[in-house]
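Protein Record: Sequence and Backbone Structure Tokens
======================================================
Tokens: labelled as protein backbone structure tokens, with as many entries as the chain has residues.
Task: work out the structure tokens from the sequence, keeping to the layout shown below.
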Amino acid sequence: MIAPLLIWAAATSLPSSPDLGKAEGQCRADEHGPSFLVTVNGIKDRKGRLKLELYPANDDDFLADDNILVAAGKAFRRVEIPVPASGPIQLCIRAPGPGIYALSLLHDRDGNRKFALSVDGIGFAGNPKLGMRKPSANAASARALTGPTPIAITLNYRRSLFSFGPLER
């Protein structure tokens, strides 16, 4: 039962080009095109970085290696920011066009650009309940409209060896 979770954690830790998808994902100052305006909920603390990524909404491509997706001409976008010291947190990521996309949000608390199962937080569009394996692309997807589409993603942190969930406040 723990093997699928370890495979998922290893896959999200694969080295990637930190700049891949950033130019395409960066919203303009007054964004009017297809995009997601993501409100971040449940952040554990104000350290590290936040990394929001957009993927095709199918299980084969969801959380796949960014180098492979870009080389194949598939949708992939990334926005990465330092965690703001205070206040509400919103990130904007551009979509290739209106449609359905899978989104993941990583709270990289130590800023090492890798998902650490015991340290970092993770969340997805649709806020699926997390278990021992990655959610399906369908459960982690949202529809981008012709303009900015507001959604909220709740970060989940490991609570025990076999359980993830949002922080209890």
In short: The beta strands are 35-41, 49-56, 77-82, 89-94, 99-108, 121-124, 141-144, 148-154, 157-160, 163-165. Confidence is low (pLDDT under 50) at residues 1-8.
